[in-house]
Every structure is written in structure tokens, then in C-alpha cells.
Amino acid sequence: xxxAELEHFFRHESGRMVSALTRAFGLENLDLAEDAVQDTLLxxxxxxxxxxxxxxxxxxxxRVARNKAxxxxxxxxxxxxxxxxxxxxxxxxxxxxxxxxxxxxxESAPAGAAESYVDGLFLEGEIADDQLRMxxxxxxxxxxxxxQVALTLKTLCGFGLGEIASxxxxxxxxxxxxxxxxxxxxxxxxxxxxPAGPELGPRLEGVLAALYLLFNEGYYSGTSPLPVRKDLCLxxxxxxxxxxxxxxxxxxxxTALLALMCFHAAxxxxxxxxxxxxxxxxxxxxxxxxxDLIAVGFTLLKETRQDAEAGRYQLEACIACYHCxxxxxxxxxxxxxxxxxxxxxxxxxxxxxxxxxxxxxxxAEGPEAGLAALSRDGLENSLADYPLFHATVGExxxxxxxxxxxxxxxxxxxxxxxxxxxxxxxxxxxxxx
Length: 433
Description:
By secondary structure, this protein is an all-alpha fold.
């Protein structure tokens, strides 16, 4: 297993194990679950570096995490509050070892019940359900949206603070404070369950936003030396698939988000050349796009059409579908894409959506029209420190024949970006002026 594959494997299993152990420990002990998983991964890294990766690495991790969980439960049961079910099982086991009666008022539990319970946490179906429970706990409406997303990305998806900060266009210290405050809220008695009825809608919004940001960090990383991080995209798709298939959460927007991810993921191999250089849409070899995955996305998108009013992810999936269905860049239906962005700007207004809308206007009506749209929306203030804004303005200025202004904005974009692949692309543009 290559280092990148091992990193993806650890990230993938981290969220699964944290979710399983949180059901045993309770949300108030989330830090304890994270510590146990971190210890498990560190032990695996040290041993596997010398002994090699075992035949069943997932099973190895689960066995170690299971033993660590039982040890923690037994050592700390006297002074740490666990979930009522687990606390009773531990007390029953202890009573059985002493030869005394089980604790009231529950029915008697057999000896070894705690071990059997922890073993059951790592069954595949249970892990899937626990991940959904964890997602909805992290995205409780008592938490601010940015705290919901940050906590989900860290706890379920193994994101570091710097990666989350890049996705948020903020600092790592700010993200750390958000996560700390969110965990404090979790300790106030938030339920570890998938909500139902009227509670589901507000909670689902935060969940979808977290997965959307996770995918975007893989599709366009602000910090990675790689042009794309396919492992993050696949992780986001895995969690989105859980949502789209679960009886309580499946619906138009979760399905549309998965369709959107399919359309974008189908183009991942075309976003860079054989040397790892980033390629813009115009320069991509469309024969490298995954047509089977595009077909999956199209099928999913059709499933959402029964809803009368399109939501944010349905509209974004439609935009991505326009790109995937175009035989070439020159044959792209920019007028149709611009119409989708017009609707999207009404449904989910944001500076980034306004920026993308201006790009579509520039393609459909000419660069001057695109620049005018940027000016009308005041993006030079709200996105002053966003490298893609200056890269876009530079491109539109270049197409409008103003090479001097294009250089100024591309140089500004180069000074702001931390993505090496994007740096290379900008340097190539500057060299070509």
C-alpha cells in the first residue's frame, strides 16, 4: 500500500471507528473516542512500518480499537459517565466477576455482555448507522453552521485544522475555536441519533454543506501539492451515498449532491496532465473523463426531477451536467449554464456563486459583460483575498485585450495562492503575456 493509499485508508477508517466508539462512550466523551482511535492508528503505523501491512488491515484496526475501548470502559467506568446502556453492561460484567447480583433496575445481562456489545459496534451495518448518527450529532441546530461543518470534517473525515481552514478561507486557530465550542455543545446532552420529522430538514442542511466542502477540498485543494486529492473526493462521495440511501435522509437534495459529485469526480483525471500540471476546463482532454460515472450522475439527477422547486445542489448538479454533456469546450451551452446560475444566485446567494455566474456571463456574452457582473456584485471587496477571483479577473481582462491589467491580477492571484499546481499555471500564463 503506497503512502498516499495508506493515508486515505487511515482517514477512511478514522471516522468509522470514532463513530462506533462514540456510541459506546457517549457524545460527552467524544475526545476520549478520538484519542482511542488516534492511539490505534499510531500503533498501526509503527508496527506496519516494520512488520508490513496485515492481510486484513481493517480487521486489525478494529480489533485493536475494540480492545482499547474495553480497557477504557473498565478503567474509567467508576468516574466517567458513559451511555446508560454501556454503563449497565460494564456494571453487570463486574458483578458477574464478583459473583454478586447484577445492578438494578435493568434485566440481568450475561457475563461478557460488554465485550459482545463492543464487538457488535464494529459490524459493517452498525458502523454505517453510527456514521450517520455522528454526522447528525455534529450538525445539530444548536451549533452555528460553520461549527457544524468544521466538526464533521475533523471528526468523521479525518481533516486537519489547516485543511478545514483552507476550505473556509479562514485561519487554523479560528477553526480550532469553532470545534472546541461545538464539542462543548455536544456535552450538553445532544442525542446520538438520526433525526426524523420536522427536525430533519435543518440538520440535513449542515450535513450536506459539510460533505460539499469535503469534496471541494479534494477537487480544488488550497494547500495540497497535488492538483487534485481524489481520496477526499471519494470519501465525500461515500458519505453522500450513505445519506442518499438511508430511509430517513434520502431525497432530492442528498441525491442531487451525490450526482454533482459524480459529475465532478468523472472529470478528475482530466484536470491534470501526465506531469501533474493543472489543466483548465478549456484545455482538458475529454476522452479522459469517466463516461460511466457521468451516466451514474445523470441517472441520479433524473431521480430528483420529481421535486417542483429545485434546490441548491440540484441546480449545481445541472450546471455540472451541462459541462459533462458538452462534446467540446466550444460547444458548451453557456447560456444554459448562466440561466442555472441566475436561479442559484436566488436560492443560495454567495460571493463564490456570484463569481462563477460572472464567468458564465463572460463566456456567454463576452468578457466585458463578465467584468461588469463582477463589478455589480462588489466582489472586489468580498473576495479581495481569494486567488481565484483575481485569476478570473485576469482571464477576463486578457480576453478583453487588456494584457497589463491581466498581469496585475494574475500576479495578485499568484501572491495569494498556496496551491503549487495553481502557482505553476499562473506562472505559465504570466510568461505567455
